[in-house]
Amino acid sequence: MPRRTVLQGVALLFAIAAYGASVIEAAATHTYLDEDIQLSEVYGGPHGDAFSDMSSIKLGQTLSSITVRGAARIDAVSTHVATPVEATWDHGGRGGTATTLVLDTDEYINSMEIHWGKKKSHIRVFYLKFTTSDGDSISAGTKTENSAIVKAPKGFQLSGFFGRAAAEVDQLGVIWTRRSAKATNLTDNMGNDWFGKRIRNWVGPTLGNAKDTACYRQMVPYNSSKVCPAGYTMYDPVDGTCIAECPLAYPVNCFLECIPQNDDCALEIAQKAVAVLASVVNVATAGILGTVISVYRNVRRNFFCAANIVGVLRSLIYYIRFKQTTAPQGAVEEILAVAYQSDVVIVDLPVAICHCLGLHVPPTLVFSGIVMMIVEAIVKQVIVNGDEILSSAQNVYNLLYNVSVLNSSSSSVDELQELMDTNSTCGYQLKRLTDHVILSVNGVRKKYPGATINDIRVKISRSSLVLKEIPEATNNCMDELLSYKTKQAAYETRDLLRKTFGVIVEQLVTTATTNKGAFVAEQQYMLEVTNYGLVMFSGLDPTRIVWLASQFVQPTCGPTAFIGEIDDGSLYDALGLQTIDEAFVGSYGTWKKKGDGKVNLIFTSSDIKDVKVVIHSGGKTIAKVPVAAGGRATWNSTVAKLEDKTLYLDRWRPNFIGIPGSGGGSLLLWVPRASRGGHLTLHVRINVS
């Protein structure tokens, strides 16, 4: 694993900080069609944060009301959804006076009048008026010379907004949807079988969730014909090894590792390198049995200067990686992240500079620094493990008493056995499928008695068992799981079942025996427990040795498997489309199981700077698409070329001194196989970020 020096790490961080300080001007987008969805022009300026209701909109939805807050300018706009599920989408701040228009049954909004102008150096939305199909209207703000009236296309209605906002609304456009369109739902009846109805097989929202900061790519030998198993690519032809393509949960290729969406390979390497350096420096200064106080009193100034700078560097890298991989806006996690950043800036960095310059550090500040080490550890835990900590009161007490234990999860460890022990059809299907797996693998062994383990692995990986039967059987359990689990939990259970069958298949291939995957959930659970504990102690142990270990304890990942063919749906539902940060917010599209086999990407930019969108498939860069400022571009491929792989987009954009950088956001989805051709349309929105 390559290592970076502290100086290189500092330079890297300053470059990222400089990139983040870019100042960007306004641009307009263009209207485009996509069957049941149309987007208006967007009006206003490039400030605030990019937002879009696109990922939440359901075709056929109805609004109950709309609220506009404004006075001199527009402070906020809110849509209130009545069906299919009640929801409120707010954009903007809390200033101004709120005015609400309640819609009657079958009444909908079909027109928006918008005015925009300058407030100091920022272009913002000054006035809004919405008119309904019944002639009712609502307005707020102050009219300006720059205005437009946006009308719904025939048969369409207002379903949401996109644009930019913070304390006020800076930019706004309308998302129109066809009134007669019907949404596809997970539980739609896709046919009947002996066990009951089949529902849609979708990737869902959980398969792309990373459980760790990285994973090591699994390696296996190729077979006697020098062919790799499905989901693997050739790594070393001389040694005869194949390496796993980066899976959906860790889609970014980083040499022998895969890292989560929106993470940076250079920072992943830097974090491990800094972990080694920080541990060495802390051991040299404090000793294994040293205390924080003795470090403050006894160490030489020059060496202590280096130690403090390394500590600050480590903290900043950790903060940057958190921001890159989550990019929340206004959530509790962001507030905690800001608090953590301020601790580094207000406490750690001034103390480090004082020591470097030989200045006296007041005793109270020294004391605060020691206290803040504990605060830092707790804040890190809340940022990294917030859900686990807040899942029960016991975990909160465990955090406070420095006992690093996660809730045990018997439903996770014993999921397969519990389902098999029930009288449900799902349990029987899994039992039947397990038997089928055993018979299929043993059948290959019998048919090809001279085949090596590697030959059998390749044969099975490309069989109907893996490509069709396991995905179908595990998805058939979804309808039953949804009767007593949330949609999120049902997807997680299905994903775990598929991983379990992967273990069963691999055990049979390599040993001809199986424990039916009983340990797969335990291994995953123990990894999370181990990392949780290591990160906890790293915040409180002055030697940082345990923190060093935590940087290298991570899972081995194989390719994404057992997804099967995917039914029709929006890209958010069907293919697990996910965007992080602002660069691609509002992107959307559709997947069709039956089609012409084409993959069409349509890029629409609201940036005044030219950018280059980099397209990765299975972790490999396959194309770079230049998109002019405020312009459009297209890129086409085929399902056959991209199938059973991740499709990952990031973009290179010049910063304020003209140097291109890849920060600002990413887009991820899964491209499935399709025996009936398939068709994927993706509208890629490129925002100022």
From TrEMBL:
Alphabetically ordered keywords of this record: Membrane, Signal, Transmembrane, Transmembrane helix
tRNA processing listed as a keyword: no
InterPro entries (UniProt xref): Jacalin-like_lectin_dom, Jacalin-like_lectin_dom_sf
Organism, as annotated: Phytophthora nicotianae (Potato buckeye rot agent)
Cleaved signal peptide residues: 1-20
Top-level taxon of origin: Eukaryota
SUPFAM superfamilies per record: Mannose-binding lectins
Membrane-spanning segments: 273-296, 303-320
UniProt cross-references to SMART domains, sorted A to Z: Jacalin
Jacalin-type lectin domain mapped to chain residues: 37-178
Protein name as annotated: Jacalin-type lectin domain-containing protein
Family matches, as CDD domains: Jacalin_EEP
Pfam families xref list: Jacalin (PF01419)
